[in-house]
């Protein structure tokens, strides 16, 4: 004889999947945004420029090279929160924005890894010569760390696209059909004029007619 699956056990499967995917998406999204923002504040490359008496050292941070990873990380973090404030098609649109923010962060970080324009700009300022460029260039791993942060945001977006229909939404004053919830009618004492005025202010009929 084959065992018949219990209806409750079948119903619990999507609930568990929703909880796990929600926890993973929150972890990936928050961690990815934090990593991308932190990486943008670190030194991405260094070099030097010849000046009178030797070489002047130069360093540039990720935010000097490109502000896109940090900006998209903030957008992704906002989208991660907004997923719980919308429903149905709106939730899918926000989830798509979250995934695109992660993909854009990865692309911008990788493109900035070999970008020397910020170093050359600093070299021209230090040498007082617009044609001066940086030499002895070195690059750090921070752009790739920012790309990892973007990848985590992308994973959060993909999880939201796949499982967000199972996630809870923020409670509001509206029901699922969009209609406002009916307010309970407070009892009015006809012998108390202040109760009558309060009922009228609430838009209620104090006479009960």
Automatic annotation (TrEMBL):
Keywords, in A-Z order: Membrane, Transmembrane, Transmembrane helix
Pfam families: Trp_oprn_chp
Region entry Disordered, spans: 177-209
TM region(s), chain numbering: 69-86, 93-113, 141-161
Hydrolase as UniProt keyword: no
InterPro entries per record: Trp_biosyn_TM_oprn/chp, Trp_synth-assoc_CHP
The keyword Membrane appears for this protein: yes
NCBIfam families in alphabetical order: trp_oprn_chp
Protein name (Swiss-Prot/TrEMBL): TIGR02234 family membrane protein
Organism: Streptomyces chiangmaiensis
């Amino acid at each position: 004889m084959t065992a018949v699956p219990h209806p409750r056990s079948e119903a619990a499967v999507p609930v568990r999947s929703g909880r796990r995917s929600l926890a993973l998406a929150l972890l990936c999204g928050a961690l990815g945004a934090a990593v991308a923002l932190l990486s943008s504040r670190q030194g991405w490359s260094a070099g030097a420029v010849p000046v009178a008496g030797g070489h002047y050292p130069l360093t540039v941070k990720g935010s000097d090279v490109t502000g896109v990873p940090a900006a998209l990380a903030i957008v992704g973090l906002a989208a991660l929160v907004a997923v719980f404030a919308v429903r149905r098609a709106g939730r899918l649109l926000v989830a798509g924005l979250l995934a695109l923010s992660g993909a854009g962060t990865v692309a911008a970080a990788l493109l900035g890894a070999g970008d020397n324009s910020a170093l050359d700009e600093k070299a021209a300022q230090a040498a007082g010569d617009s044609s001066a460029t940086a030499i002895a260039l070195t690059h750090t791993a921070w752009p790739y760390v920012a790309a990892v942060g973007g990848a985590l945001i992308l994973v959060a977006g993909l999880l939201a696209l796949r499982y967000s229909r199972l996630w809870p939404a923020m409670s509001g004053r509206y029901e699922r059909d969009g209609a406002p919830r009916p307010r309970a009618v407070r009892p009015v004492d006809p012998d108390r004029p202040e109760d009558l005025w309060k009922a009228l202010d609430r838009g209620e009929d104090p006479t009960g007619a």
